[in-house]
Amino acid sequence: MKDLRTNFLDHVKKGLNGKPLFLRIIFWDGHEYAFNQDIRVTMHISSAKLISRMLMGSALDVLGEGYVEGTIGIDGRYQDILAVAEGLSDAFPAKKPRSGIFRKYHAAHSKSRDADAIHYHYDVSNDFYKLWLDRNMVYSCGYFKTGAEDIDTAQEQKLDHICRKLHLQPGEKLLDIGCGWGGLLSWAATHYGIQGVGVTLSEQQFAYAKERMEREGLADRVEIRLQDYRDIPERDYFDKVSSVGMFEHVGRAKLGEYFGVINRVLREGGWVMNHGITASQQDDEDGHHSGSDFMDKYVFPDGEIPHLWRLVLEMAGQDLEVLDVENLRPHYAQTLIHWVQRLEAHKDKAIAMVGDKRYRIWTIYMAGCAYAFWRNWSALHQVLAVKQGGAELTPRPWERHYQYQEDSFRLAAPDWGDL
After folding, report:
1. Model confidence at 139: pLDDT above 50
2. What percentage of the chain reaches a pLDDT higher than 90?
3. 411, exposed or middle or buried, with CB in 10 Å at 0-12, 13-18, 19+?
4. Distance between CA 386 and CA 34 in Å, rounded?
5. What span, in angstroms and rounded, lies between the C-alpha atoms of 101 and 287?
6. What keywords is this UniProt entry annotated with (predicted)?
């Protein structure tokens, strides 16, 4: 009868189907095994229980948890570590029944539970996020024109891209749902002359954004609220609505209600731009996937990623006519590479602020997400729509040229650098 270690190694080799795995494993008793002469990653496994768990379920979840908790040591560049993790994941696919994740959907997304989830992820520390975000404190996908821009430039290009896409005009009323640290509202008020309202459930974001508007002389034009989107009281009031990196927290079962709120607060003919992560395949949103347990436990509690079709369907159900769809998937891969490189550059400061465990969570989560976006495991869509309740055609530009200051085409390519 094979021992556990031999069974594990045989299982991995069979699952690889001849594909290379540039990995050396050092087991708890000092025994070593290299899958390839070209060793790019060394993994230290401290307990037989860890490989027993991988044999029973998702390797990505076990590896992620082991790395965070310190029971698995991993040496190597992040892009090589993630390629090895993908190879192991192919050998140990997730086996949890789909019915289990559906039960979670029905339990999640009350107002109090959403507030707790937002508090866990966003109220880590404003100073922690300052270490690796751009100067405008924008925690969402940047917008690259060449791929060579620094993160400050890419985020300002993204802010301006959203403002131009919404066709913002001086004096218009803009609602930003999930306003973060106020970067978009600050940019829109300063450069486009809007009157703004921003809502967030994060207490630290609320405090920072409110102080920011006062510091930048925008407090008389931009109001920041600590408020659930469901409690926004206005009706037929806002000319434009933006939601950037927020609807991932809404929940599939609540998308109708979410877009219903947007319909209610928008005036007739008003525009909304929803920017958020989407599933790359239609069936991805229904099943349990490798790494989902890790993300739910350590990174985004109760986060749910719908497919684009569901987003468009729910918008249409609330009389929001889609005008434009843009996939920014490569832009998010590049953004995440910038973030994790900047966080690693401030490793000592970050650990002093939030501790070694949370530092490891954020580095592996951002590097893993960069890899996932580049491999088309996840997508990022901006969907522009107009509130079209009547029979007459709502005025809108005839074409998209207004969205762009220059026309250019370049092939997107990731710049992993020394990551």
Report:
1. yes
2. 55
3. exposed
4. 57
5. 7
6. Lipid metabolism, Methyltransferase, S-adenosyl-L-methionine, Transferase
Complete DSSP assignment for 107-168: H---HHHHHHHHHHHH-S-HHHHHHHS-TT---S----SSS---HHHHHHHHHHHHHHHTT-
Conformational region of residue 78, where left means phi above 0, alpha means psi within -120 to 50, and beta covers everything else: alpha
8 Å CB contact between 285 and 384: no
Tell me the residue ranges of DSSP E strands in 161-314.
Answer: 173-177, 195-200, 222-226, 238-244, 266-279
What is the predicted pLDDT for the residue at 99? Answer: 32
pLDDT bracket for residue 307 (50, 70, 90): very high
Backbone angles phi, psi at 145, to 5 degrees: -100, -30
Task: Let me know how many helices (H) and strands (E) the chain has, helices first.
Answer: 16, 11
Name the residue among 221, 227, 219, 216 with its Cα closest to residue 135.
216
Predicted confidence at residue 208, as pLDDT, reads 96
Q: Which residues are catalytic?
A: 369
- Per-chain mean pLDDT for the chain: 86
Dist CA 315 CA 259 (whole Å): 6
Label residue 291 by pLDDT band (50, 70, 90): low
Q: Which runs of consecutive H residues, i.e. helices, occur in 166-201? A: 183-192
Q: What is the pTM for the complete model shown? A: 0.85
Q: What is the pLDDT of residues 229-265, one digit of tens each?
A: 999 999 999 999 999 999 888 988 899 999 999 999 9
Amino acid letter at 110?
Answer: S
Q: Where are the beta strands (DSSP E) in 8-126?
A: 23-26, 32-34, 41-45, 72-75
Q: Are 203 and 119 in contact (CB under 8 A)?
A: yes
Dihedral of CA atoms 179, 344, 135, 325 in degrees, nearest 10, equals: -50
The single-letter DSSP state of residue 393 is P
> Could you give the domains of the chain?
4-91 (3.30.1050.10), 107-390 (3.40.50.150)
Q: What pLDDT, on a 0 to 100 scale, did the predictor assign at position 97? A: 35
Residue 132 is which amino acid? W
